[in-house]
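Colleagues,

For the teaching module next term, I've prepared a clean inverse folding example: a structure given as C-alpha cells, and then the sequence designed for it. I'd like students to try predicting residues themselves before seeing the answer, so please don't circulate the second half yet.
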C-alpha cells in the first residue's frame, strides 16, 4: 500500500485498509484483534452475525461488503457499522426503516457494476445518478462513496478501466451529493492498481489471512471453478 501511494504521490494515510475476514474463524480473529486489527469485513450476513456474537466482548467495527438480500437487511442494520454494497432503493428503504426503529445510522457505499458482467451485483453506471438523487430521503443512511468489484481478469488494462470508471462516476455523483466522496475498490489481487487510480478504501482478505478454504465462486456467484 505504501509503495502504491508513493507511485501515485498520495499520502499513505489517505488510504484505509479494510481487512476482509470471511471464512476466517472467530478464534483466529481474536489473534487478529490482539495484533491491532479492529475492523472486520464480512460477505455473508449470517457469518458476520455469528462472529459478532462470538466476539461481543471486543470493540470491533463490522463492515458488510457483500450483496445483501432485502429480507436480511434488518439483521445487518442491527450491528453493522458500514455497508459496501447498496444497490437498490428497496434495500435502502429496508435498511433505513430498521435503523430508524433501532435509533442507529449506517455508513453506506453505493455499489456500481463497472465491468458490465452479468454475474456482478451493483447498479449499471447509467442508473447511478438517478439513484444518488434518492439518497437524501433515507435519513438513517450516511453515504460515504462508491464501491465496485473490478473485472475478474488477467487483463490489467480491463481491470484498471473499471477503477477509472468508478472514479469518474464518483466525481459526477459528488456534484449531486457532496457526501459521495470515497472510492471503495481493490482487493488482494489488484489493490495496488486501485490505489493508483484513487481508492480510499481497499478490501483485502487473502493477502492478509491466506487462501480461503472455499472457492471464490462460493462468495461471488458466476465464477465457476474460481
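(Answer key — instructors only)
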Amino acid at each position: 500500500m505504501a509503495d502504491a501511494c508513493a507511485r501515485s504521490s498520495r499520502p499513505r494515510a489517505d488510504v484505509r485498509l479494510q481487512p476482509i475476514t470471511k471464512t476466517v474463524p472467530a478464534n483466529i480473529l481474536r489473534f487478529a484483534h490482539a495484533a491491532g486489527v479492529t475492523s472486520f469485513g464480512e460477505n455473508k450476513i449470517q457469518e458476520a452475525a455469528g462472529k459478532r456474537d462470538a466476539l461481543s466482548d471486543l470493540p470491533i467495527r463490522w463492515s458488510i461488503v457483500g450483496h445483501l438480500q432485502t429480507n436480511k437487511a434488518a439483521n445487518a442494520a442491527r450491528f453493522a457499522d458500514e455497508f459496501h454494497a447498496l444497490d437498490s432503493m428497496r434495500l435502502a428503504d429496508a435498511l433505513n426503516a430498521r435503523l430508524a426503529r433501532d435509533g442507529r445510522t449506517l455508513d453506506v457505499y453505493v455499489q456500481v457494476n463497472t465491468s458490465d458482467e452479468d454475474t456482478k451485483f451493483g447498479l449499471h453506471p447509467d442508473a447511478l445518478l438517478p439513484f444518488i438523487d434518492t439518497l437524501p430521503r433515507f435519513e438513517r443512511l450516511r453515504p460515504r462513496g462508491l464501491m465496485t468489484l473490478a473485472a475478474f481478469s488477467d487483463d490489467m488494462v480491463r481491470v484498471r478501466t473499471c477503477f477509472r470508471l468508478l472514479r469518474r462516476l464518483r466525481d459526477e455523483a459528488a456534484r449531486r451529493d457532496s457526501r459521495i466522496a470515497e472510492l471503495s475498490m481493490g482487493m488482494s489481487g489488484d489493490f495496488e492498481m486501485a490505489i493508483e487510480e484513487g481508492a480510499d478504501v481497499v478490501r483485502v482478505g487473502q493477502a492478509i489471512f491466506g487462501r480461503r478454504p472455499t472457492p471464490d465462486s462460493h462468495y461471488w456467484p458466476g465464477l465457476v471453478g474460481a
